[in-house]
């Protein structure tokens, strides 16, 4: 058995070395300016790391790494290139470590090796993306998102505090990161797919921040582009896909068990919204398909914080109403807050369920009431922003969404 495991690790190390070495060999160059390491060097280094780990453990691997580092440094300084770089040298040391890792975790070593090969292969595209495509605002947003997800969120305490036990710091941080992440994903989709699906994609992406405001924006565009009213109406309706998706994500972020009672209504609402929106979109003219989208930052941090604080405030208010008026108070809060934002009401209801103040199956009616009242406000916004014709397209879609989510109660 041990011999078979050893052969498996050696084969994995050799495969990693050959994969990385093949990529480096293709970019090694010719003549005096060629790089110091190619196919054979990387394959031998990977095997050396594996054998060193088997013979002498981590200590011997460390000694080999030091010696290899000295050899790589000498080769680097002897390079005649004006800008030799250190990519191949760092990759060589990485391959040594991956070869050693193959003795204990060959699957992990192979996965890391494949990622490393991808980074080396697509270096030109990555350089072009970083220098020409990625804006300063997007870079700053990415750093903020990573800091919030990897630094702030892990240290946030997961316990309920404050009056009525309605505030959970971990939940607050999770929702903030979630809002930023979904906004960033929508932004990437727009940047990647371009303007072919124009307004629909941008509406779904911006709907994660506020579907109501997205419908208002589409309505304002109708005044300038009356010939595109069906496409703009389809985009407005499809922004509800973000609402339904985000309700599910919020419930899952607070407690995955909550989705067991809500998957039916959410799935029915999503299907009904998608079908109605697609019916409005197709067939479409060439002028409608070539509309351009203005892309800003990856997400709106200020809006994410405002929405999260609003969710927290409504959660506290809902807990207060529950304490004094029982289940009727939760229903009333869901109705009133839903006119402004279904996400905040959903988060507050989910928080009450997680804290044990209401049962998990009791969240269905309040959440559906919040989405329904939010649909009514969206119809009003459509009328005010885009006029009667725009509202005539949007209102049936909102009514269909509302009927679908309530019908979905019977299948969940």
Radius of gyration: 28 Å
- Given helix and strand content, the structural type is mainly alpha
Strand percentage: under 5%
| Average residue-wise pLDDT | 75
Structural domain count = 2
Helix content: over 70%
Can you describe what's shown?
78% of the residues lie in helices and 0% in strands. The protein is mostly helical and 412 residues long. It folds into 2 domains: 2-129, no CATH class; 135-410, no CATH class. α3 packs antiparallel against α4, α8 packs across α9 and α14 packs across α15. The two termini are 49 Å apart.
Chain-wise SSE layout:
Elements: H1 2-26, H2 39-78, H3 87-101, H4 106-121, H5 123-133, H6 136-155, H7 169-193, H8 198-224, H9 229-254, H10 263-281, H11 286-289, H12 301-325, H13 327-338, H14 342-354, H15 364-407
State the main characteristics:
single chain, 412 residues, mainly alpha, 78% helix, 0% strand
Condensed summary:
With 412 residues, this protein is mainly alpha-helical.
